[in-house]
Amino acid sequence: MTGAPMEDRLREALAARAGRVQPAPDALPTIRGRIRARRGRRRRAFLASAATLATTVAATVGVMAVREAAAPPGPLPDVSAATPATGNPSPPPGETARLPVYWIGPDPAAHPLRDVLYREFQTLPVTTDTLAERVRAAVTAAVSGEPLDPDYRSGWPAGVTVRGVRVGESAVTVDLAGVRVDADNPAGAAAVRQLVWTVTAASNLPDVQLRVDGRQVTTLWSEVPVGGTLRRADADKVLAPVWLISPQQGDTVDRAFDVQLAGFLPDGAVRVQLRDATGALVASRDAVLDDTDPHQGDAVVRISLPDGYRPGPATLSVAAAGAPDTPLDDHEIVLPG
Amino acid sequence: MTSELVSRWTESALSSDWFAPAEPASADEAVTALFAAEYRPLVRVAALLLHDEGAAEDITQDAFVALHAAWWRLRSPERARAYLRQSVVNRCRSALRHRGVIDRYLRRQPPPGVAASAEHAAMASAEHDRILAVVATLPSRQREAIVLRYYADLSEAETAELMGISVGSVKSHTARAVAALRARLGDKPGNGR
Known about the structure:
The complex is a heterodimer of chains A (337) and B (193).
Chain A: H1 6-19, H2 27-60, H3 66-69, E1 96-106, E2 115-125, H4 131-144, E3 161-167, E4 171-177, H5 188-203, E5 207-212, E6 215-216, E7 219-220, E8 224-225, H6 235-238, E9 242-246, E10 256-263, E11 269-276, E12 281-288, E13 297-304, E14 312-320, E15 329-335
Parallel strand pairs in A: 4-5
Antiparallel strand pairs in A: 1-2, 3-4, 5-6, 7-8, 9-10, 10-13, 11-12, 11-14, 14-15
Chain B: H1 8-14, H2 27-50, H3 53-74, H4 77-99, H5 101-108, H6 126-137, H7 140-151, H8 156-163, H9 167-185
């Protein structure tokens, strides 16, 4: 890279920055919801206009009294209030927010005993509409909550809680309680990665500093260094090789639905398979993860359920196209009746 | 390196097999198909222009909702793609003008050369941090020009059309931006502060 023209350095820096932008998994349903809300408003506006016109015409021909014709229509119900107006709605105090939470799980591709990270979006309670509260909620889930997918787990031992979160200019400081720093934790390194990726995803800030019971610590579980500023390690070293972003575990899908994938398999070729409760193959789609993101490619494939499919529980899985019988990630979903 | 960074925009512009010209898609189908190909690249371009990922996603979703309303007069994937890009760039420009997101971004930037640590294989190298810190201080039209040219990989003519300016102005904005980067960072990586 030494001596590379400024234009190339600029391209690389912009691509790296853009690669960190991970759009929300529910963006398409949000857009569809907003389109439906807009249709509803237009339909009511049309009906109100038609009613006004009819009233005016009736008044003109003397069927209705002028006083009644001049009465304004009642206020329209605000449908948009029931539908998020933006892709990342800020919840009012005391409500919930949809936040990224990373979990650890086995790497079925190459190292069955190695823990890698998977991401879910969970709807979590928040008490205030602040970045610190959103980070607190996400970290609380990561260290003491439950993943939607039972294949995942937290690397943090039971009893760990979040004492506080402080958001600075570029760093988020997380203060934990209940961590036995000298105990043994075989998943310790993965647990710290889980926390770092969750904090940086929930905050969009790159740096994390860790405290335990209000004090700086340099080592957790006797062997995991956590002093100074923590940042994400390279994605290809810590993330699962491919994962299902949406639908998520437990989602009920439509008769036609999009499957969002992310990963970095060598050739990017993946196969998505949907099997019903009997194990019968309902649908199979091949896709190639785009390689424009140096950290993690993605793909969207559309599945339309065939006539005669069996409604109810089903398993959606993704595998390398060259080894389709070895799922790398799977989610239990529900097919509509 | 350059070929690896070619934008999805360029790739998606070459693939129109989702749309059968003889049988125009409905607005719903158009939004779904365009979402798969265009949403993520558009969010990324908006994020580079705005330096605010939440706002970038909101603006891109606004553009898709607007596209749905405008589909009856577009009825072509090429025109729809152009509409989306124009819509996102215009909305970013408007957001920058009215919301002061640049100031918020600058306050969030980490100082260059953050100390190494256990996880410091890092989200971005110090070189990227330095370049992006300078990009963030460029005048908005210069930043727009270099994001569209060097990230979205649009031609000078495409960039000019999208920005509503002449090709000569695109060249001028781009050259000034690159000159500013060279002046601040030097000709070689690591030459800067």
